[in-house]
Amino acid sequence: MSLNGILSAISAHPEYKRHLALISHSGNSADSTPETTIRQGARPGYIGATWRQQRSPLLVLTPRPDDARRLHDQLLTYLGDEEPVYLLPEPEVLPFERLAVDSNTTNQRLATLAALAQSGNRSCPLIVTSVGAALLKTLPAEAMTGPASKPVPPYRVAVGETIALNHLLTQWVELGYHHEPLVEAPGSFSHRGGIIDVFPPNSQFPFRIEMFDDEIDTIRLFDPYSQRSIREVSEAFLVPSQEQLSKFSN
Fold this sequence. Notes:
The chain is built from 8 helices and 11 strands. By secondary structure, it is an alpha/beta fold.
Protein backbone atom coordinates (compact mmCIF):
# COMPACT_ATOMS: atom_id res chain seq x y z
CA MET A 1 0.00 0.00 0.00
CA SER A 2 1.29 3.48 -0.89
CA LEU A 3 0.12 7.05 -0.29
CA ASN A 4 0.12 8.11 -3.93
CA GLY A 5 -3.12 10.01 -3.38
CA ILE A 6 -1.33 12.43 -1.06
CA LEU A 7 1.40 12.94 -3.66
CA SER A 8 -1.26 13.77 -6.25
CA ALA A 9 -2.73 16.37 -3.88
CA ILE A 10 0.71 17.92 -3.36
CA SER A 11 1.36 17.97 -7.12
CA ALA A 12 -1.91 19.84 -7.68
CA HIS A 13 -1.12 22.60 -5.15
CA PRO A 14 -0.51 25.97 -6.88
CA GLU A 15 2.57 26.83 -4.80
CA TYR A 16 4.11 23.43 -5.54
CA LYS A 17 3.46 23.89 -9.28
CA ARG A 18 5.15 27.30 -9.15
CA HIS A 19 8.23 25.90 -7.43
CA LEU A 20 8.41 22.93 -9.82
CA ALA A 21 8.28 25.32 -12.77
CA LEU A 22 11.20 27.27 -11.30
CA ILE A 23 13.19 24.04 -10.90
CA SER A 24 12.52 23.06 -14.51
CA HIS A 25 13.44 26.55 -15.74
CA SER A 26 16.75 26.55 -13.82
CA GLY A 27 17.97 23.43 -15.69
CA ASN A 28 21.26 21.98 -14.44
CA SER A 29 22.63 25.20 -12.98
CA ALA A 30 23.08 24.82 -9.21
CA ASP A 31 23.42 28.61 -8.78
CA SER A 32 19.99 29.29 -10.26
CA THR A 33 18.11 26.45 -8.53
CA PRO A 34 15.43 27.97 -6.27
CA GLU A 35 15.57 27.34 -2.54
CA THR A 36 12.56 26.45 -0.44
CA THR A 37 11.86 25.55 3.17
CA ILE A 38 9.66 22.52 3.88
CA ARG A 39 8.44 21.49 7.31
CA GLN A 40 10.02 18.24 8.46
CA GLY A 41 6.77 16.26 8.41
CA ALA A 42 6.02 17.34 4.84
CA ARG A 43 9.47 16.63 3.39
CA PRO A 44 8.91 12.97 2.38
CA GLY A 45 5.73 13.88 0.51
CA TYR A 46 7.35 16.86 -1.20
CA ILE A 47 10.42 14.86 -2.26
CA GLY A 48 8.29 11.95 -3.45
CA ALA A 49 6.00 14.23 -5.47
CA THR A 50 8.95 16.05 -7.05
CA TRP A 51 10.70 12.82 -8.04
CA ARG A 52 7.48 11.39 -9.46
CA GLN A 53 6.88 14.56 -11.51
CA GLN A 54 10.46 14.92 -12.78
CA ARG A 55 11.19 11.20 -13.30
CA SER A 56 14.92 11.86 -13.29
CA PRO A 57 17.66 10.54 -10.97
CA LEU A 58 17.49 12.29 -7.60
CA LEU A 59 20.01 12.20 -4.74
CA VAL A 60 18.82 13.33 -1.30
CA LEU A 61 21.44 14.12 1.38
CA THR A 62 20.69 14.07 5.10
CA PRO A 63 22.93 15.14 8.02
CA ARG A 64 23.01 11.75 9.78
CA PRO A 65 22.60 8.05 8.89
CA ASP A 66 19.49 7.72 11.08
CA ASP A 67 17.86 10.58 9.19
CA ALA A 68 18.59 8.84 5.88
CA ARG A 69 17.09 5.53 7.02
CA ARG A 70 13.98 7.26 8.36
CA LEU A 71 13.46 9.29 5.18
CA HIS A 72 14.01 6.20 3.01
CA ASP A 73 11.31 4.30 4.89
CA GLN A 74 8.92 7.25 4.65
CA LEU A 75 9.48 7.57 0.90
CA LEU A 76 8.70 3.87 0.43
CA THR A 77 5.45 4.46 2.31
CA TYR A 78 4.48 7.25 -0.07
CA LEU A 79 5.74 5.76 -3.34
CA GLY A 80 5.43 2.00 -2.74
CA ASP A 81 7.97 -0.82 -2.55
CA GLU A 82 8.03 -1.34 -6.31
CA GLU A 83 9.57 2.04 -7.08
CA PRO A 84 13.39 2.38 -7.42
CA VAL A 85 13.94 4.06 -4.04
CA TYR A 86 17.36 3.20 -2.60
CA LEU A 87 19.25 3.81 0.62
CA LEU A 88 23.03 4.24 0.53
CA PRO A 89 23.90 3.32 4.14
CA GLU A 90 26.97 4.38 6.04
CA PRO A 91 29.03 1.30 7.05
CA GLU A 92 29.95 1.01 10.71
CA VAL A 93 33.39 -0.32 9.76
CA LEU A 94 35.80 1.93 7.89
CA PRO A 95 37.48 0.58 4.74
CA PHE A 96 40.47 -1.72 5.42
CA GLU A 97 39.73 -1.97 9.17
CA ARG A 98 40.30 -5.53 10.38
CA LEU A 99 36.76 -5.96 11.62
CA ALA A 100 33.81 -7.97 10.38
CA VAL A 101 31.71 -6.02 7.90
CA ASP A 102 27.92 -6.36 7.88
CA SER A 103 27.20 -8.11 4.58
CA ASN A 104 23.68 -6.65 4.40
CA THR A 105 25.09 -3.12 4.52
CA THR A 106 27.68 -3.97 1.85
CA ASN A 107 25.08 -5.52 -0.46
CA GLN A 108 22.74 -2.57 0.01
CA ARG A 109 25.51 -0.09 -0.82
CA LEU A 110 26.52 -2.04 -3.94
CA ALA A 111 22.94 -2.30 -5.19
CA THR A 112 22.46 1.45 -4.66
CA LEU A 113 25.75 2.36 -6.32
CA ALA A 114 24.83 0.17 -9.29
CA ALA A 115 21.46 1.91 -9.63
CA LEU A 116 23.20 5.30 -9.49
CA ALA A 117 25.86 4.32 -12.05
CA GLN A 118 23.22 2.97 -14.44
CA SER A 119 20.76 5.85 -13.93
CA GLY A 120 19.43 7.41 -17.09
CA ASN A 121 20.04 4.14 -18.93
CA ARG A 122 18.20 1.44 -17.02
CA SER A 123 16.24 3.48 -14.44
CA CYS A 124 15.78 6.85 -12.73
CA PRO A 125 16.47 6.05 -9.07
CA LEU A 126 15.66 8.08 -5.99
CA ILE A 127 18.63 7.67 -3.65
CA VAL A 128 18.75 8.73 -0.01
CA THR A 129 22.04 8.90 1.87
CA SER A 130 23.83 10.74 4.66
CA VAL A 131 26.69 13.16 4.09
CA GLY A 132 29.15 10.72 5.68
CA ALA A 133 28.05 7.82 3.48
CA ALA A 134 28.25 9.94 0.32
CA LEU A 135 31.81 11.07 1.09
CA LEU A 136 33.24 7.55 1.38
CA LYS A 137 35.58 6.53 -1.42
CA THR A 138 34.09 3.73 -3.48
CA LEU A 139 34.37 1.97 -6.83
CA PRO A 140 34.42 3.98 -10.07
CA ALA A 141 31.29 4.06 -12.21
CA GLU A 142 32.79 1.72 -14.83
CA ALA A 143 33.03 -0.97 -12.15
CA MET A 144 29.23 -1.05 -12.14
CA THR A 145 28.55 -0.64 -15.84
CA GLY A 146 31.46 -2.31 -17.59
CA PRO A 147 34.18 -0.71 -19.72
CA ALA A 148 33.20 2.45 -21.59
CA SER A 149 29.82 2.39 -19.80
CA LYS A 150 28.72 -0.63 -21.85
CA PRO A 151 27.37 -3.73 -20.09
CA VAL A 152 29.63 -6.49 -21.40
CA PRO A 153 30.79 -9.78 -19.84
CA PRO A 154 31.45 -10.30 -16.98
CA TYR A 155 28.78 -7.68 -16.23
CA ARG A 156 26.11 -9.10 -18.52
CA VAL A 157 25.35 -12.61 -19.71
CA ALA A 158 22.46 -13.32 -22.07
CA VAL A 159 20.69 -16.30 -23.57
CA GLY A 160 22.30 -17.36 -26.85
CA GLU A 161 25.73 -15.95 -26.06
CA THR A 162 28.86 -18.05 -26.45
CA ILE A 163 31.21 -17.73 -23.47
CA ALA A 164 34.61 -19.01 -22.37
CA LEU A 165 33.49 -20.46 -19.05
CA ASN A 166 36.82 -20.56 -17.20
CA HIS A 167 37.61 -17.01 -18.26
CA LEU A 168 34.17 -15.80 -17.14
CA LEU A 169 34.45 -17.43 -13.70
CA THR A 170 37.93 -15.97 -13.24
CA GLN A 171 36.56 -12.51 -13.97
CA TRP A 172 33.79 -13.03 -11.42
CA VAL A 173 36.43 -13.86 -8.81
CA GLU A 174 38.17 -10.59 -9.72
CA LEU A 175 34.86 -8.83 -9.03
CA GLY A 176 34.87 -10.24 -5.49
CA TYR A 177 32.59 -13.28 -5.93
CA HIS A 178 33.29 -16.43 -3.91
CA HIS A 179 33.04 -19.97 -5.26
CA GLU A 180 30.67 -21.94 -3.02
CA PRO A 181 29.11 -25.45 -3.19
CA LEU A 182 25.64 -23.84 -3.03
CA VAL A 183 24.60 -20.27 -3.77
CA GLU A 184 22.72 -18.96 -0.73
CA ALA A 185 23.90 -15.38 -0.25
CA PRO A 186 24.78 -12.44 -2.52
CA GLY A 187 28.37 -12.39 -3.74
CA SER A 188 28.70 -16.11 -4.41
CA PHE A 189 28.61 -18.46 -7.39
CA SER A 190 28.75 -22.21 -7.97
CA HIS A 191 29.56 -24.39 -10.97
CA ARG A 192 28.26 -27.93 -11.52
CA GLY A 193 28.79 -29.32 -15.00
CA GLY A 194 26.74 -27.23 -17.40
CA ILE A 195 24.95 -25.31 -14.63
CA ILE A 196 26.25 -22.04 -13.16
CA ASP A 197 24.52 -20.31 -10.24
CA VAL A 198 25.42 -16.72 -9.37
CA PHE A 199 23.93 -14.27 -6.85
CA PRO A 200 24.79 -10.61 -7.56
CA PRO A 201 24.12 -8.00 -4.84
CA ASN A 202 21.86 -6.02 -7.20
CA SER A 203 19.35 -8.85 -7.58
CA GLN A 204 16.68 -10.06 -5.18
CA PHE A 205 17.23 -13.66 -6.31
CA PRO A 206 20.18 -15.62 -7.73
CA PHE A 207 20.43 -16.65 -11.39
CA ARG A 208 20.78 -20.21 -12.72
CA ILE A 209 22.58 -20.30 -16.06
CA GLU A 210 22.28 -23.54 -18.04
CA MET A 211 24.81 -24.18 -20.77
CA PHE A 212 24.60 -26.19 -23.97
CA ASP A 213 28.25 -26.80 -24.79
CA ASP A 214 29.73 -23.26 -24.64
CA GLU A 215 26.44 -21.45 -25.38
CA ILE A 216 24.00 -20.11 -22.77
CA ASP A 217 20.79 -22.07 -23.22
CA THR A 218 18.57 -20.63 -20.44
CA ILE A 219 18.77 -18.20 -17.52
CA ARG A 220 16.35 -18.51 -14.62
CA LEU A 221 15.80 -16.75 -11.31
CA PHE A 222 15.49 -19.25 -8.48
CA ASP A 223 14.80 -19.38 -4.75
CA PRO A 224 18.11 -20.00 -2.92
CA TYR A 225 16.37 -21.90 -0.11
CA SER A 226 14.02 -24.22 -2.00
CA GLN A 227 16.16 -24.21 -5.19
CA ARG A 228 12.95 -23.92 -7.20
CA SER A 229 12.82 -21.82 -10.36
CA ILE A 230 10.88 -18.56 -10.16
CA ARG A 231 10.85 -17.39 -13.77
CA GLU A 232 12.93 -17.41 -16.93
CA VAL A 233 14.79 -14.26 -18.00
CA SER A 234 16.75 -13.29 -21.09
CA GLU A 235 19.83 -11.88 -19.34
CA ALA A 236 21.60 -11.47 -16.02
CA PHE A 237 23.36 -8.25 -15.10
CA LEU A 238 26.13 -8.46 -12.48
CA VAL A 239 27.96 -5.87 -10.42
CA PRO A 240 30.98 -6.27 -8.11
CA SER A 241 30.28 -8.04 -4.82
CA GLN A 242 32.82 -6.00 -2.84
CA GLU A 243 33.39 -2.28 -2.58
CA GLN A 244 37.19 -2.46 -2.37
CA LEU A 245 38.77 -4.35 -5.25
CA SER A 246 42.42 -4.34 -6.31
CA LYS A 247 41.27 -4.45 -9.94
CA PHE A 248 39.96 -0.88 -9.65
CA SER A 249 42.44 0.58 -7.16
CA ASN A 250 44.78 3.31 -8.32
